[in-house]
Design brief:
The protein folds into 4 domains: 141 residues, Rossmann fold (3-Layer(aba) Sandwich), CATH 3.40.50; 100 residues, Beta-Lactamase (2-Layer Sandwich), CATH 3.30.450.20; 71 residues, no CATH class; 153 residues, Heat Shock Protein 90, CATH 3.30.565. It is 42% helix and 22% strand. The chain contains 14 helices and 18 strands. A 5-stranded parallel sheet has the order 2-1-3-4-5, sandwiched between helices. The protein has a 5-stranded antiparallel sheet with strand order 7-6-10-9-8. It has a 5-stranded mixed sheet with strand order 12-14-15-17-16. Strand 4, helix 4 and strand 5 form a beta-alpha-beta unit. The radius of gyration is 31 Å and the shape is elongated. The N terminus is likely disordered.
Length: 482
């Protein structure tokens, strides 16, 4: 990035980020709000060189995620050279551990990127406050004053513990604890605020954290307020200096609403799965009756409509089977679900499950991957059936590896037109003809199921064209094993 040069006497803002979009927006918007030159640096090395060359930088705004070292290490380097330099750290939503480290490194202010973008007037106001704070309001070498300003600006509940006492709580923490002010917490032991149903946080644990021997990151822990109200929180605890004494900083994020949403989503999913199961079961009986009636009609008369009717019934049966298959396939694969899989043997086993008398399977690369065998059997079988149905009975299907983390399945059939690929993985657009625009297909759910299984494995899923013009399904993010 290049410096945006103006008159030499103009004070400057130094922004340090490896995010081109954020850099462009910052450079465009901040000069509209503040009378400062904007200097941009893409790395810490470039930023330090700028600071050596210029003495008119009035504030640094740095991203935490940088290309060479992180923003905290950069902050510590700046503090060693310029102890009073206003420094604002920008990080992603919910990174409490970074907040704790930033406070310890004497950051001026701490901002969440998702709350900045599109609100440049507010960011300009915070920069002005940081500069004024440095110039007139308080000496930045006062750690307690600086820390208090930061803690009050953070929306999560934050408290400082010394020994067996709470010596500071910001506004959200007072609300969480049911206290009017910090004086109401005098003499209150932190142990009394921990739900008796859990024993994760003990006096020994806090002592180890205070000594820097341990850190707690996002532990779900019920907190009991002075009014007896129990609130589930996500708790982070780290060592901090407060008034020259080793202390513990507690960061508590209220997760009661999130947990309520998760329970409601789980309840609704269970209900939908039950509806899916009952509906599938109830549809099978009339379909079986329809198939029987169709055979009786065949015996009594001939009609061109009978074949079309049979295809329609078969399609309904395929939709029911695919719908039953969808249940739980999109839940993320856990460590307990995943197993080492030798693809040659596994794909061959799946191939035997499809009717492929004249078709050919070729696994062109020896490889082992980690995945859920039950769900991956559905994935391979769906792809093989699709290839045979649309590529013809003598189609050749190849399975192989590409790049560092890529797995593909391709055939030498007619392929999938570009304008139909997105439709085949969209649940709202899966009805209608098959993948190539001819034939009845299987309700269009085959590739939708494949996509959901890939997503459950945290794989990326792409439909493209193979070397012979046929369909090629690519998966990236696959975990290969030696």
């Amino acid at each position: 990035m290049e410096h945006n040069r103006v008159a030499a006497e103009t004070p400057a803002l130094l922004q340090v980020t490896a995010d081109p979009a954020f850099e462009a927006a910052f450079t465009r918007e901040l000069p509209k709000q503040l009378p400062y030159e904007v200097i941009s640096a893409a790395s810490v090395e470039e930023a330090l060189r700028t600071l050596r060359e210029r003495n008119d930088v009035v504030c640094i705004v740095s991203d935490h995620d940088l290309s060479d070292i992180d923003g905290i290490a950069f902050l510590e380097t700046v503090r060693a050279q310029r102890p009073d330099q206003p420094f604002i750290l920008v990080t992603s939503e919910g990174n409490e551990r970074v907040a704790s480290r930033a406070i310890h490194a004497h950051v001026t202010d701490y901002l969440i990127k998702e709350r900045i973008e599109g609100r440049w007037a507010r960011l300009a106001s915070l920069i002005t406050r940081a500069i004024d704070f440095h110039r007139t309001r308080a000496p930045l070498n006062d750690p307690e004053t600086r820390t208090t300003v930061i803690l009050e600006a953070i929306p999560d509940a934050m408290a400082v513990l010394q020994g067996d006492s709470i010596v500071y709580a910001n506004g959200p923490a007072l609300d969480l604890l049911g206290a009017d002010d910090c004086d109401a917490l005098e003499g209150v032991s932190p142990a009394t605020l921990i739900s008796p149903e859990t024993h994760e946080i003990t006096a020994e644990t806090l002592a180890a954290i205070r000594a820097g021997e341990r850190q707690i990151d996002r532990l779900e822990q019920p907190i009991v307020g002075l009014d007896g109200l129990v609130t589930p929180v996500e708790l982070t605890a780290a060592a901090i200096d407060w008034r020259g004494e080793p202390s513990v900083l507690l960061i508590c994020r209220d997760v009661s609403e999130r947990r309520a949403r998760a329970r409601e989503l789980e309840r609704r999913n269970a209900r939908l799965n039950e509806i899916r199961r009952v509906t599938s079961h109830q549809l099978r009986s009339p379909l079986a009756a329809a198939q029987g009636r169709l055979e009786l009609v065949r015996e009594e008369c001939e009609s061109d409509h009978l074949e079309a009717l049979e295809e329609t019934i078969d399609r309904i049966v395929s939709i029911i089977e695919d719908t039953e298959t969808l249940t739980n396939l999109d839940e993320t694969v856990t460590e307990a679900d995943a197993e080492p899989i030798r693809v040659t043997d596994f794909a061959t086993s799946c191939w035997r499950m499809v009717e492929a008398a004249d078709a050919t399977l070729a696994v062109v690369d020896e490889m082992r991957i980690r995945g859920d065998p039950d769900r991956l059997s559905h994935l391979f079988e769906n792809l093989f059936r699709n290839a045979i149905e649309y590529g013809g009975e003598d189609v050749t299907v190849r399975v192989g590896r590409f790049g560092e983390d890529g797995l593909y399945v391709e055939d030498d059939g007619p392929g999938i037109p570009v304008d139909r690929r997105e439709r085949l993985v969209d649940p709202k657009r899966t009805s209608g003809p098959g993948r190539g625009g001819t034939g009845t297909g299987s309700g269009g759910l085959g590739l939708l199921i494949v996509g959901w299984i890939a997503e459950a494995h945290v794989w990326q899923f792409t439909i493209t064209e193979g070397d012979d013009g046929g369909a090629r399904i690519e998966f990236t993010g696959v975990e290969f094993l030696p």
